Amino acid sequence: MDILSVIEHKKKKMALTKEEIRFFVQGAAEGTLPDYQLAALLMAIRLNGMDMQETACLTDCMARSGAMLQPDVGGIPLDKHSTGGVGDTTTLVLAPLVAACGGKVLKMSGRGLGHTGGTVDKLESIPGMQVELDEETFVNIVRQVGCCVVGQSKNLAPADKRLYALRDVTGTVDSVPLIASSILSKKFASGAKAIVLDVKVGSGALMPTLQDAVHLAQTMVQIGKILSRPVSCVISGMEEPLGSHVGNALEVKEAVEILQGKVQGPLKDVALFLGSRMLINAGLCENEQEANDKLTAAIENGAGLAKLKEMIKAQGGLPDVCDDVSLLPTAPCIRPVLAKESGWLAATDGVALGMAAQKMGAGRMTKDDIIDPAVGFIMKKRIGDRVEKGDEIAILHASGAASADEAEKNILSALTFSPSAPSPARLIYALVDEKGIQEIHL
Ligand code: URA
Ligand code: CA
């Protein structure tokens, strides 16, 4: 086998054989193939595509390119993944709730990327919390507590790590077979047996149009089917932050307040929807209604909050933050952003809001930046709300006055007002699983 003929075949739009795929994936993981040949092949795949069998084979080979965890967690290992949202703390809400309902949530999460937040960064705002755990500790916590959230292990799917870094700098990220195999290879390597994926759609999302998002979702569901690991995809919008809080400690606070039963709204609704799919996929519930009732009960009787405390304690963090959110880091400069005009909030630029928080220090501008866990903002208005001049639109939590001034400008310019009432933004568009596409209105 030689890499030139593999490149040649894909250039001529041929389907690659299993042997050819295994060959280049191994070459990527082991470092025996140079960047320029892998990059040429990635571009050929980006331009000429891959069929379902090739895509499933690529996923399987990348998953097997490093360690394959086969964790004994005392149940079906469940995982949930989002393609990247703003103010999207669903993991911190649903992992403890699903655990409280008997699920085993084994979650490797990312750090923040660009304008999107990362669960691992959020968890690190809890004093003492450890997110880099060895595999044995990780699996033990999942077995004992029912959920554990850590950073991505370096031993898993090394081929994806190399190929993803190349894609990032060669204009080959936006390829459905490459995205689908990249996401799922890491999930399969971590041992997840039932997976719920939240595919974001909209400007600033990996998939800009609903059609693209459905295509990615269908591809991932098919890969799961071929490789015998059930995958369900929820397609959700990202026109505005999902929760009202944007920023690391602020998002932990919002998740805790949802688990305390104090906060309602879209973040809770989407977390319950995704959590229901996890319970159904794990065979722990028969249907949506039963799953939703169980998860809601776990908020009402405090079982979900108790699980979050247990998880934080097991990971070395201060569980008391679940009873007293003021123990989380707080910013020195807290002040409101007031509306400069009256009208209806018709649109928000979710990406611009994510970037506003990133610039405040909630995210990294370069790979080596250190995050300020305390900063960010709380949105007081959502799309569809009436706003009067002088109303509080947001509350800034900034490191100082200059940062607050800049954030205020960025937030105000991310908002569009209209003289008439617009329809509220869609939260969830569709559910895609082995049964097909089901339109969802949420
Ligand atoms: N996230 C991934 O892990 N891989 C991709 O290719 C895109 C998003
Ligand atoms: Ca404090």
Q: Could you give the topology of this structure?
A:
Blueprint: H1 3-11, H2 18-30, H3 35-48, H4 52-63, E1 77-82, H5 90-100, E2 104-109, H6 119-123, H7 135-145, E3 147-151, H8 158-168, H9 176-189, E4 194-201, H10 210-226, E5 231-237, E6 245-246, H11 248-259, H12 266-281, H13 288-300, H14 303-314, E7 333-338, E8 343-348, H15 350-362, E9 376-379, E10 386-387, E11 392-398, H16 401-413, E12 415-418, E13 428-433, E14 436-439
Parallel strand pairs: 1-2, 1-4, 2-3, 4-5
Antiparallel strand pairs: 5-13, 6-9, 7-11, 8-10, 8-12, 9-11, 13-14
Rounded radius of gyration (Å): 22 Å
Query: What multimeric state do the chains show?
Result: single chain
Order of helices and strands: HHHHEHEHHEHHEHEEHHHHEEHEEEHEEE
Named once each, the bound ligands are: uracil, calcium ion
Q: Sheet bearing the most strands, described?
A: 7 strands, mixed
Structural class determined from secondary elements: alpha/beta
Tell me roughly what share of residues is in helical segments: 40-55%
In CATH terms, what is the fold-level topology of the largest domain? Answer: Pyrimidine Nucleoside Phosphorylase, Chain A, domain 2
Unreliable parts: none
